[in-house]
Amino acid sequence: MGKSPKRRFITGFDGLRTLGVIGVIMYHLNPNVFSGGYLGVPIFFLISGYLITDHFFNTVDYGGSFSLSNFYVKRVKRLYPGMLFVLLASGAYIVMFLKGLLYHLDQIFVTNVLNVYNWWQIFNGQSYFERFANNESPFTHLWTLSIEGQFYIVWPILLILFAKYGIKKSRIFGFAMIVSIASAIWMAILYKPGVDPSRIYYGTDTRLFSILLGCGLALIWPAEKLKAGLRRNDKLKLNLVGLLSFALMLLMIFTIKDSDPFLYRGGMFIFSVTTCIFIAVVAHPDSFWNGILSNKVFHYIGTRSYGLYLYQFPVMIFFESKFKNVADHPILYPVIEVVLIVLITEFSFRFVEQPLAHAKWSDVKNFFHRSSGVQRILALVIAIICLTGSYGVVKAVSAPKPNVNHSQLADKITKNEKTNKLKKQKAIENLKKSKSQKNATGKMSAADYARYKKAAKAHPINTEFEKYGLSQIDLQRLKDVPLTAVGDSVMADGSDNFMKLFDDKKVIIDAAVSRQMDASVDLLQNYKDQGVLAPNVMVGLGTNGPFNLQQVGQIMNLVGPQRHVYWINVHVPTRPWEKTVNGVLSQATKKYKNLTVIDWNTYSAGHTDWFYDDNVHPNPDGSMYYTSFVAKEILKSLDKK
To answer: Which residues form the Acyltransferase domain (predicted)?
Structure first.
């Protein structure tokens, strides 16, 4: 017997879930593989919206009664076993091996259970894009569960009210589309270039459009009412639409980075619409795409996609906390992590999620009479894990803030950003007034040397930097070097020292947490348009994700051949893209004569005492080495001109 229409589209959706979860996992392992792997989340949202709405009207339209209580019970049994186990199992690991992560575990647990974790993340400043500076968490990704939970609570109630008052499907569809478009517009309005987009990434209000597009599709394209037997030409058109929409989905997944302004200004909405069209094709019984996506491998992965999504972050965070030299094993370590994710997911699926999803009270009563010895041992192991995790949740209530070093780093970056914001504005005003400063290069003449030597004896400055390799003449000279700098959190950490070394009246240091390449291009263009882009441009990017030679070319072309670019390479051994970033920069120096790579990676190698616990951001002493080394390298380059 062939598959029923309902069975056909559900197994096809397993294939879509597979694509989504693979993209998300690969993105978290290495953004260089699936630059837009985070776009897997809208796929989950769209499918949820479609299935719930289709199920409701498939029940009501045929004279049935939709039971809200039964719906909630099924959702709880389907979603909560896995969610609770990942929270408690992670809590057990934290209690035993990473006590520093106990802080806020109680709040994380409660807000996940109550389906408001995404808003807790927003109000607590937990970034999705910056896994440093006290933001590292094995639960960051669980924000999606809260949005879906909120949807499962509210949408069925609205549908019952719509049905009770005889609201036509066309009007419900219009309502869903209006709210969906409003949500996408709201995302675009809230997005600010160069600012961490986590608020709009987590927000229910800014992510609602994907779910509602799925709801709208179910209203006009109900799976149970789609009939097979299309004419050959119509079937060809259907599958061609599927091909085009699928191709556009893949194009966006592989090309749009999480820092691309287009993503938040309509890109994610366009991806959702495109995916919605593809879902419509997959749902039709005459679509060959359903057959492609419902193969045994995709079906297997799709049925476990929930668990794969749940366990990815805990495995990655816990693994990388033990093996910090990820950059030295960019293939082996990710493979090990994927194997661990799959094994733990399978264990959870077989022995936690499925048994509890189908359990009855009679099963619990008869467990010790009918279960085998192996089953009892597994139950005991799971019980111990859950009890240990529960202890961790209780213990977290009085747990102190973890990683004082990280808190110190976060506080320092915040303080630097506030201080530099005012200084940056004053520098821009000064540079607009002073044309002579724009033409200065910082190159030293014999007269300059004599002047600096005299000043060094009469009025020494920044003497604390002398023990880090900068002479007093160097320190005097740096005050005459005009500079525009853009960078990420590593530069933000050292920006206070840069402001001491250079003249803050003619130097712009624009650095922020989780910044990536695309945002910096916009910033440099803005400074160029204002006429304040200095002859010397310093760039410190690559900590948060990889880039390619073409993207480097964007900055080089924007800056132009008359200015010199000093690019600080990265020391980020905990991320697989360290060698990728540094390799691209090395390659770029052969193409651009006005590019100098400042090799911070080699200079800092072996000096773990220079860094905070994350082994990425320099601590106070390391920051002195970092900024002094960068300043020395800039002066060396100026001498060669």
So the answer is: 11-343
Q: Would you call 359 helix, strand, or coil by DSSP?
A: coil
Pair of tokens at residue 93: 């690991």
Which residue, 641, 423, 428, is CA-closest to 534? 428
Give the pair of three-digit tokens for residue 430: 């000064």
* Distance in angstroms (rounded) separating the CA atoms of residues 83 and 270: 30
User: Where do the domains of the chain lie?
Assistant: 11-397, 408-640
Tell me, what amino acid is at 40? Answer: G
Tokens of 89: 């199992």
> CA angle, corner 101, sides to 96 and 102, nearest 5?
75
Taking the domain 408-640, which CATH number applies? 3.40.50.1110
- Split at pLDDT 50, 70, 90, the class of 33 is low
Strand-pair partners of 536 = 564
For residue 485, give the 3-state DSSP assignment: strand
For Cα atoms 557, 560, 562, give the angle at the middle one, nearest 5 degrees. Answer: 160
Q: What long-range pairs does 181-184 form, CB within 8 A, spacing at least 24?
A: 181/209, 181/269, 183/207, 183/208, 183/209, 183/212, 184/209, 184/266, 184/268, 184/269
Please list the alpha-helical segments (H only) found in 191-304: 198-202, 204-220, 232-255, 261-262, 268-283, 288-293, 296-303
For residue range 237-287, what is the model confidence (pLDDT) as tens digits?
999 999 999 999 999 998 888 878 899 999 999 999 999 999 999 999 899
Contact status, residue 189 vs residue 87, Cβ threshold 8 Å: no
For the ranges 426-435, 533-542, 568-577, which has the lowest average pLDDT? 426-435
Averaged pLDDT of the chain:
90
Calculate what percentage of the chain has a pLDDT beyond 70: 92
pLDDT tens digits, 391-407: 999 999 999 876 545 56
